[in-house]
Amino acid sequence: MRKDGLKWTCTFPGCSHQELYKSSLSLHIRKHTEKLVFVFKLFKHTIYNICLIIQCCIV
Ligand SMILES: [Zn+2]
């Protein structure tokens, strides 16, 4: 996050959300990170499935 004049600006790519308070922006940024964690978990699950498929093919 970055201070832009009186407001705090979200520096997440593709987002230009502004909040007057740093604590409010922290809450906003948490939404981004939660989404990222979700995508990562989904990705990890996919990798796990691919590994299972590869293992089945080899054995
Ligand atoms: Zn944002």
Summarize the structure.
With 59 residues, the protein is an alpha+beta fold.
Written overview of the protein:
With 59 residues, the chain is α+β, with helices and mostly antiparallel strands. The chain has one domain (2-58). Helices cover 63% and strands 14% of the residues. Strands 1-2-3 form a 3-stranded antiparallel β-sheet. The protein is rod-shaped. It starts with a strand and ends with a helix. The model has no long low-confidence stretch (mean pLDDT 92). Zinc ion binds at residues 10, 12, 15, 17, 28, 32. It comes from Armadillidium nasatum.
Keywords:
3 strands, binds zinc ion, C2H2-type domain-containing protein, 59 residues, 14% strand, alpha+beta
